[in-house]
Specification:
With 211 residues, this protein is an alpha+beta fold. It contains 8 helices and 4 strands; from the N terminus they run βαβαββαααααα. A 4-stranded mixed β-sheet has the order 2-1-3-4. Helix 1 packs antiparallel against helix 6 and helix 4 (87-113) runs antiparallel to helix 5 (134-154). The two termini are 20 Å apart. Bound molecules: glutathione.
Length: 211
Amino acid sequence: MRLHTFPEAPSPRRVHLFLAEKGMEIEQVVVDMRKGEHMSDAFAALHPDCTLPVLELDDGTCLSSCAAICRHLEAIQPEPPLLGRTDTERARIDDRDRWVEMNGMLAVMEGFRNAIKGFKDHALPGRRPVEQIPELAERGRRRFGWFMHDLDASLSDKDHIAGDDFSVADITALVTIDFGLRGLKMALPDEAASLKAWHERVSNRPAIRGA
Ligand SMILES: N[C@@H](CCC(=O)N[C@@H](CS)C(=O)NCC(=O)O)C(=O)O
């Protein structure tokens, strides 16, 4: 099993933080996205969508969604559990994780990829040219603002995204927030006290600081 990755990019970072929290080490192949190595014929033969990360299993299966990669890693090494212990916990964590992807990660990607010069004609990942739409950049920023507001409200009565315990949903949310703050040059809202406290708490976890 080996992980094709570019650790600086947000989606690969999700898997790296998951591995760090598990204390797992696996073989890695760095594919330099800045040099466009993920668009090469060799990489497209492995994963035609040309995105990172990709977890290549020993039987040749390639997993490319962060959620599926994390599920596989959790099956290999269940402790500490990051996807929940009971059926209800697992469902709740999945539910929040998906919510963060849909309302946070996609909003930031919309805002970032439709605005940055380096993504001209590459507003969506993959080899097909896709034009940037400035209105989508604006909408992405607005959606990210709503995401931070809603996340703050959801954290008012709990320490973590999906309940009392740290889970994969916290990793997805942390990567999303850090990507949004940096990529969209936005700040955590002044009034978002619960979100700020959570961000500080999660960023300072030993595994996350060391990753
Ligand atoms: N398929 C992944 C997302 C992968 C993804 O979007 N990766 C980005 C980096 S964060 C990528 O590889 N982009 C390639 C490109 O923009 O050309 C998932 O569903 O979790």
